[in-house]
């Protein structure tokens, strides 16, 4: 006999902001969840027998946020002193020396930290980009982060990343963290068979994701694209993140990153790029025409001084744009809600106060991200959509005085990004601002011990003092 359908009635939310096709917002309304789908939205909805009832008075109800770009393994190297003021290439070459130490156990605890923080700050779906597979590890690193995602209950889109061009062949990474095309393709096939679920309410979809133009060969790009298209998977990579990368592509390939992506078959509705900071109006038009998506990562771009991505122009042209926290070592948080605020502020620096508004940024964080990941039933609250819903308590001192517009309030005001409630696939995974399925104190303790151990080992092997501050602002 099938288990009876579980119901959750969210009662009397201050406002339900749906981000549906009409951008409807319902003040003082209820949301009924049946199983893993939204059943209905309205006033005074009847509670089905046995329903869990959540009193949402004073709370804003939103679709959960969608994170389109991350490197969970970097969570344990947040704010490393040696590279606090370094730009991307210098930042990478130093941190590779610590990341060489990652193992399935390290990835598991790093993923618990990153995914736990994402859930607490309102994310219900996250992708991840794991591209570094040290020879010394057993290679089962994606499996370890999938285990963490399942333990916490987040909808997960891990991408099988890779690097093939080590230092000895003109790339940036050490040779012992790169792999051959054959090794990568075989492991990708293994992961697809073991985990990929293409169904509309999938909790786990695999995508394929070579690291960047400066760390893989052209053959890796074309072979992975062919494999992805055989299985109906999405493709992801970093592109046009920094001026250094554009210069590298001009020198190595004789063309700009977007031209190179097109040459290797990487423009299309099944592709999304992280960053796209240094792209021209003509390249934006090619993204729009091909349906190529972008994950905008404002905190990372500010943190590494990479530049300002032309997001308002991309949105105007019709490019699918979502938001990404990027790795926790280039942002130092896994807070997608914070990224929506950062996006709003960053584009005003360049384009003035009317360059972008709060709802546009929240739409990128929800519906926009769901479109970029191809999860069509996520990112909105509408009958039949996935029951991925968050509640934010507006009756906190940080929101006092901002009740004129309870939706925009969460980007303009607030002193914390911890949500009250997070529901993923019809399951409550954050309640009263705490994870329901894991002990946060245990995760924190294990993460700090593991992080200290990795730095110690890397220092012993390389002689580099990662805890020193050699580069001061001039
Ligand atoms: Zn990244």
Summarize the structure.
With 474 residues, this protein is α/β, with parallel strands linked by helices. The chain contains 14 helices and 17 strands.
CATH secondary-structure class of the largest domain: Alpha Beta
Query: How far is it from the N-terminal to the C-terminal residue, by CA?
Result: 70 Å
Number of helices: 14
Which topology of the largest domain does CATH recognise?
TIM Barrel
The CATH homologous superfamily of the largest domain corresponds to Metal-dependent hydrolases
Overall structural class, as computed from helix and strand content, comes to alpha/beta
Please, what is the oligomeric state?
single chain
Task: Describe the largest sheet.
Answer: 9 strands, mixed
Roughly how many Å is the radius of gyration?
Answer: 22 Å
- Which strand-content bin applies to the residues? 15-25%
C-alpha geometry:
globular
How many β-strand stretches?
Answer: 17
The total tally of domains equals 2
């Amino acid at each position: 006999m099938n288990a009876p359908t579980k119901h959750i009635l969210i009662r009397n939310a201050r406002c339900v902001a749906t981000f549906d096709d009409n951008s409807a917002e319902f003040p003082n309304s209820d949301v009924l969840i049946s199983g893993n789908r939204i059943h209905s939205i309205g006033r005074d909805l009847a509670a089905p027998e046995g329903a869990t009832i959540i009193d949402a008075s004073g709370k804003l109800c939103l679709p959960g946020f969608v994170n389109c770009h991350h490197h969970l393994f970097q969570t344990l190297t947040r704010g490393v002193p040696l590279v606090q003021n370094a730009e991307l290439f210098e930042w990478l070459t130093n941190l590779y020396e610590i990341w060489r130490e990652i193992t399935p156990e390290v990835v598991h605890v790093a993923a618990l930290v990153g995914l736990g923080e994402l859930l607490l700050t309102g994310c219900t779906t996250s992708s991840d980009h794991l591209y570094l597979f040290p020879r010394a590890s057993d290679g089962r690193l994606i499996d370890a982060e999938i285990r963490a995602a399942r333990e916490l209950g987040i909808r997960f889109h891990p991408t099988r990343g890779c690097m093939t061009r080590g230092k000895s062949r003109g790339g940036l990474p050490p040779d012992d963290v790169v792999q051959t095309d054959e090794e990568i393709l075989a492991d990708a096939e293994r992961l697809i068979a073991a985990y990929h679920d293409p169904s509309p309410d999938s909790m786990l979809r695999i995508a394929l994701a070579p690291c960047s133009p400066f760390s893989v060969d052209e053959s890796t790009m074309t072979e992975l694209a062919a494999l992805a298209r055989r299985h109906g998977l999405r493709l992801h990579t970093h592109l046009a993140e920094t001026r250094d990368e554009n210069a590298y592509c001009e020198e190595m390939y004789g063309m700009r990153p977007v031209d190179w992506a097109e040459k290797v078959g990487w423009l299309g509705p099944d592709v999304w790029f992280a960053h796209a900071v240094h792209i021209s109006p003509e390249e934006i038009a090619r993204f729009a025409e091909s349906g190529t998506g972008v994950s905008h990562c404002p905190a990372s771009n500010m943190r590494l001084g990479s530049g300002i991505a032309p997001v308002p122009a991309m949105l105007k042209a019709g490019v699918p744009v979502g938001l990404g926290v990027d790795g926790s070592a280039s942002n130092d948080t896994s807070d997608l809600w914070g990224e929506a605020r950062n996006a709003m502020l960053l584009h005003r620096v360049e384009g003035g106060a009317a360059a972008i508004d709060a709802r546009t940024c929240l739409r990128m964080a929800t519906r926009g991200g769901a479109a970029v990941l191809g999860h069509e039933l996520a990112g909105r609250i509408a009958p039949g959509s996935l029951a991925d819903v968050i509640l934010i308590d507006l009756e906190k001192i940080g929101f006092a005085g901002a009740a004129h517009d309870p939706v925009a309030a969460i980007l303009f005001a607030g002193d914390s990004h911890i949500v009250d409630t997070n529901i993923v696939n019809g399951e409550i995974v954050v309640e009263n601002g705490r994870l329901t399925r894991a002990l946060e104190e245990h995760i924190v303790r294990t993460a700090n011990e593991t992080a200290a151990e990795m730095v110690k080992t890397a220092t012993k092997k390389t002689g580099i003092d990662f805890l020193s501050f050699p580069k001061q602002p001039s």
